Amino acid sequence: MPPKRKSTTDEEDDEYRRKRDRNNQAVKRSRVKSKMKTEETQQRVNDLRLKNQLLEDKIDNQKKELKFLKELFITQAQAKADKLVGINLNELLQDDDNDDNDEDEGEPSKKRAKEQSKGEGSSKSRSRR
Amino acid sequence: MPPKRKSTTDEEDDEYRRKRDRNNQAVKRSRVKSKMKTEETQQRVNDLRLKNQLLEDKIDNQKKELKFLKELFITQAQAKADKLVGINLNELLQDDDNDDNDEDEGEPSKKRAKEQSKGEGSSKSRSRR
DNA sequence: TCAAATTGCGCAATGC
DNA sequence: AGCATTGCGCAATTTG
C-alpha cells in the first residue's frame, strides 16, 4: 500500500517553513524600519531645539533693535521740544553706525555728538545780524 | 529505592520557571517604558513645531514693526533735517537691512542716497539772495 | 555574584 | 494570498 498522499503533510510542512521564514524576514524589515523612524524622530527633536534657539536669539535681537528705535524716537521728540534752545539734530543722529547688529541696546542719547560741524557754527548762522 | 534528591531537578525547574516569569514581567515593563518614551518623543516634536511656528510669527510681527518705525523715522528725520540743516539723513538711516541673516523679503526701498552734499548748497538757503 | 533591564529573535495573531 | 505590524516568550547580554 503505497502512501496515497504523503505530499499533504510534507508539503504542508514545507510550506509552513517557507512561510515562517518569510515572515521572519518581514519582521526583521519591519523592526529595522521602526528603529530608523525612532532615531529620525529623535534627530528631529534635536534639530527643532536648535532652530528654536536661533529663533529666540533673533527675537532678542529684534527686540533690542526696537528698543533702540523707540528710544531714538523719544530722544528726537525731546529735541523737537528743545528746538527753541538751539539744540541741533547732529547730536542725535550723526553717528548711526551703531544701528547695525547688537550693541544698540543702550539708550541712544549716550552717544554724544562729536561736534563734527566742520565749517563753523552749525547753528544756522544766526549770528549774522 | 527512595528517591535520593528529586528536589534537585524539581526545584531547579521551579526556579527556572520563576525566573522566566520574572524576566517576562521585566520584559513587559521594559517594553512599556520604551513605548512611552517613543510617544513622548513624538509629542515633543509636535510641541516644538508649534512653538517654532509661534516664534516665527513673532519674528514676523517684530519685523513689520521695525519696518514701520524705521520708515516713520526716516520720514520724520528727513523732514527735520531738511528744515534745520540739510544733512541728508538717508545716509544715516537708510540701511534697515541690518536685521540679521535673512532679512526683509519686502521691497528694499531702494537704499542708496549716497549724495552727501556737504560741500555747499543745503537744499535751502538759496532763496536768500 | 546576582537580579532587573535591555535586546535580538522567532512564533502566531492580526491588520491591510 | 502575502507582506507588515504587534504582543509575547525565550535566551543572551548588559547594567547597577
TrEMBL record, chains A, B:
- Residue ranges of the region described as Disordered: 1-44, 91-129
Please give the SMART domains that the UniProt record associates with this protein: BRLZ
Quote the subcellular location field of this record: Nucleus
Output compositional bias ranges, type Acidic residues.
93-106
Where in the numbering of this chain does the BZIP domain appear? 13-76
One Pfam assignment:
bZIP_2
Q: Does the keyword Zinc apply?
A: no
Q: Where is the composition biased (Basic and acidic residues)?
A: 107-123
The GO annotation for biological process reads: DNA-templated transcription
Write down what this protein is called: BZIP domain-containing protein
- Lineage of source species: Eukaryota, Metazoa, Ecdysozoa, Arthropoda, Hexapoda
